[in-house]
Amino acid sequence: MAEAGIASRRKSEELITAGHVKVNGDLVTTLGTKVTSKDDVVVDGVPLNRAKLVYYLLNKPRGVISSAHDEKGRKTVVDILADEVTTRIYPVGRLDYDTTGLLLLTNDGELANKLTHPKYEVDKTYVAKVKGIPSNDELKQLRLGVKIDGKKARPAKANILNSDSKKGTSIISVTIHEGHNHQVKKMFEAIGHEVLKLHRESYGFLTLKGVPAGQWRELKTSEVQQLRKL
Q: Is 96 an annotated catalytic residue?
């Protein structure tokens, strides 16, 4: 229902439990009821037609919310595409308000759920500007997995790209395949280095090549197929 643009996922659940949905003529009020493309789904007497699946890659700028809607009226990543994309889409995972870089948007809920599930181990590479210059021992902690929010994060790849002893900062590449809230920032906080800037430069095999900040492009069919293989 959410993918067809009827309502948000949460609102769709409310419609189901309130008795607004029929499948093959039978009233359905149980959440999680399985349906296929062969089933007739009707919401308040209106047949549900699934929208064409679409996939976009955005180079998210700073100061934009990774959400389809924002209660405070702030600009969202969906707003950036709104002039040209009329299909209801939503971001795959999130980037913080002040984090920039690669973000996928789609209406393919099945693929989005798999891409964000830790068990599929899709690599996400970030470049972080941090305070101080982490020692080898501190980087080793990231590579072994540090504790954040009381739980041990999975091992990450971490390497110093550049450092400035005068300014007391360094640029570090870090690759993770989880997506907990503020994860990269919390990982560096755990080893005593505050993140000043954060940019996601790749998601699996996808990069931002040819996509400037604030711009986007539609994924190629071959790229969508490759994402499914991940």
A: yes
